[in-house]
Amino acid sequence: TKKVISAVSVLMALLIFLPSCTLAVSRGEYEALQSRLNAAQLEIGAMKTNLATLQDSYNDLQADYGGLLATSESLQDDYDDLRADYENSLERFKQSTLEDPTWSELEEFLEWDDTDTILYTEDDFDCSGFAITLRDRAWRYGMRSAYVELVFGERVGHALNVFDTIDKGLIYVDDTQADQIAYVEVGQPYGVIPLDTVKSRYISCSGSPDEFWGSLAYTTHPNPFSYDYYVDYQRRRQFYE
């Protein structure tokens, strides 16, 4: 802005000076002054263009700032709502009479419950419907259960439940169309085993299939709900096949 004012002042001085001094300068001096005048006019034009560009940029920044400010306020409102919901949920959880089951109690509940028999309907009653229904029924049964959502990749996922049992720790349950124990490990394939197939003690598959004609050897797994058990189960299936 100061440069524009300075250039305008020079131009005005030249305009005032030229009429009164036309006869007092030579042609060469006149042409030099005229050249300086033209250059000053060009510089003023460029400065006006730059000023207009800067004004447009400033207006854009002002608009962006207004949008960001509105977004920030909206996000703050959302955060406040979520915080309030969290605190309310936490308070209800502290007052809850739900209890964590033992493994045998969970097994008994799953055998009694018929959530797995509900008809699967895509986009209406899918894995999320099964997981929510089992959770709600467990709550009514007096048993604490959580809804779990797995993400396998972009736009691909699955819903199931988890129970924090007193004696066996976390046990994942996939009740979508069947009572199944689920096996979840970050970075590993998702797996399920039918409820009635999960056994701590089972026939050892360390030998050759020919040995099955003789006396069978049994082995015991320390935790049939660990991912290691699922890996061993897959190996045993291949052995039998």
Distance between the termini: 86 Å
Report the mean per-residue pLDDT as an integer: 86
Radius of gyration computed on alpha carbons: 40 Å
Share of β-strand residues: 15-25%
Largest sheet: 5 strands, antiparallel
Report the oligomer: single chain
Q: Architecture of the largest domain, CATH level 2?
A: 2-Layer Sandwich
Keywords: Coiled coil
Coiled coil: 23-92
Structure characteristics:
Beta Polymerase, domain 2; 241 residues; 2 domains; two-stranded antiparallel ribbon; five-stranded antiparallel beta sheet
Please describe what this structure looks like.
The protein is an alpha+beta fold. It has two domains: 2-92; 103-240, 2-Layer Sandwich (Beta Polymerase, domain 2). The protein is 53% helix and 16% strand. It is built from five helices and seven strands. It has helices at 2-21, 27-95, 103-112, 127-140, 227-240, and strands at residues 146-153, 156-165, 169-174, 180-183, 191-194, 201-203, 218-220. The chain has a five-stranded antiparallel beta sheet, with helices on one face. It has a two-stranded antiparallel ribbon with strand order 6-7. A hairpin with a 2-residue loop joins strand 1 (146-153) and strand 2. Helix 1 (2-21) runs antiparallel to helix 2. The mean pLDDT is 86.
Summarize the structure.
The protein is of the alpha+beta class and 241 residues long. Helix content is 53%, strand content 16%.
